[in-house]
Specification:
Elements (H helix, E strand, L loop, with lengths): L6 E4 L2 H19 L4 E2 L1 H4 L6 H11 L2 E6 L21 H12 L3 E6 L23 E3 L5 H16 L5
Parallel strand pairs: 1-2, 1-3, 3-4, 4-5
Helix pairs in contact: 3-4
């Protein structure tokens, strides 16, 4: 029987898709494909993307926000930062997790640091105060992912063996 996703991965394709793919693969190996949600790998065809994301988030236990070096500055075609758009999916995913009081683990990749609250829209400014974990390139990737998996296991409490 399939289990509902419990780990939600939020990321920007323009910023960290390749690293996020490695993170996803490692999490699937540890927790199983049905436990980890990443849009491209987990989205069924023919569904309303926004409604489906909200539905998945409602059942998740932890959100991983993958933050690369350009995460806060990715731009819309009109030059505005994507984060200022209330319809931005990453913003919506973080807002939903914050509204539920869901644990959020920022994963800082490709040398990124935590964004300052002044870089974030008011609705997601609390993200700047969450404790993040670095996920670095090899040779540090394995050790960093062990720390990430350990943090998730502590939050989930009842993970598969």
């Amino acid at each position: 029987m399939a289990h509902a996703a419990r780990i939600f991965i939020s990321y920007r394709r323009d910023d960290s898709a390749a690293t996020c793919g490695r993170i996803y693969d490692r999490l699937v190996t540890r927790f199983g494909r049905d436990t980890v949600f990443k849009d491209v790998d987990s989205m069924p065809a023919g569904v309303d993307f926004t409604a489906h994301i909200r539905s998945i988030l409602a059942g998740c236990a932890v959100e991983l926000v993958v933050i690369g070096p350009a995460w806060a500055d990715i731009r819309l075609p009109d030059g505005r930062r994507r984060l200022v758009d209330p319809g931005d999916y990453v913003r919506m995913e973080i807002e939903a997790a914050l509204a539920r009081g869901m644990p959020i683990i920022p994963l800082l990749v490709q040398g990124a640091g935590m964004p300052h609250s002044s870089q974030l829209p008011t609705s997601i400014q609390p993200l700047a105060h969450f404790s993040g974990l670095f996920v670095r390139y090899d040779p540090d990737f394995d050790g960093d992912m062990r720390r990430v998996i350990g943090a998730i296991e502590r939050l989930l409490g009842d993970v598969p063996g």
